[in-house]
Amino acid sequence: MTKIYSDPPSFVLENLQLLEADLDSKIPSKKLDRNLLIASWNIRAFGNLTRKWKSNEDDSPKRDLHSILCIAAIIKRFDVIAIQEVKANIRALRDTMKILGNHWSLVLTDVTRGDSGNGERMAYLFDTRRVNLSGLAWELVVPREQLQNGISNDALQSQFARTPYAVSFKSCNQTFILVTLHILYGKNSSERIPELKAIAKWLADWASDTNAYHQNMITLGDFNINKRGDLLDKTFLEEGLYVPEQLQHPSATRSIFDETKYYDQIAWFRDHHKAPNLSMEFESAGSYDFLSTALQNRDLTKLTLSYMISDHYPLWAEFRVC
Questions:
Q1: pTM of the model
Q2: Which CATH architecture has domain 10-320?
Q3: Please, which residues have CB within 8 angstroms of residue 138's CB and are 6 or more apart in sequence?
């Protein structure tokens, strides 16, 4: 850990030791020139920070230095991680990058304006000792013609509350593209169907184009899918996107408040033989439940913890790259 603060108090150090030991037991280790660990995490309102080791009830935001050390300890277990809900104020993100150290880098979008955009950014953080940029970045734009071909015209106005953001990376001899999403949320799930259909169709066309930059495409982020097998799930996956079985298992929970929610996903396309459209070999996947470790010695409610760490668990997938 890069030292950017005064020495942490003993309760922080004790908690970090517990967290690190739990991560050791649940997340695959990084193996030089062997594996790649890709993750996605919606970190709730990841913006400002109270620079105290222990925030109190009167502090706003609740997220404090202890929280940031826990968040950084989790992030550093992965090679590249897509983060949703980064806010206009990036104080917490800047501190996280300093803690991670000089061998970590990031790619960050500008703020999405408007009420539905919620003042959010998309971010990728990556360990440059194992992953580097490979030259491509874009925001997904769906042509009007596609929207008019079987998709409601209303989607043209509502589908990109937060525009999907894609970046290409290289690890070992493998080039891959990550597309991160944070789908519009609404009480009526039908509000999200046009957005999901438009995005899935666009991604499927890209993945099937042999002249595209690269066909190693992985989609990840907060899809705001309510439950396994619901209409949104079927709508998105009908274009050929595949979620690995480990992330479909009930043990791969997404929400700290409701284990039935299926919000976050990591998915990729398969061909007509149901073989992955990836040159990287999938190894394993899961989610990381930090409830019993991060800040566990602070006696916090789940609601308070959600503002200090997150209301989502991170999802991860491991691939063999060499």
A1: 0.90
A2: 4-Layer Sandwich (3.60)
A3: 165, 166
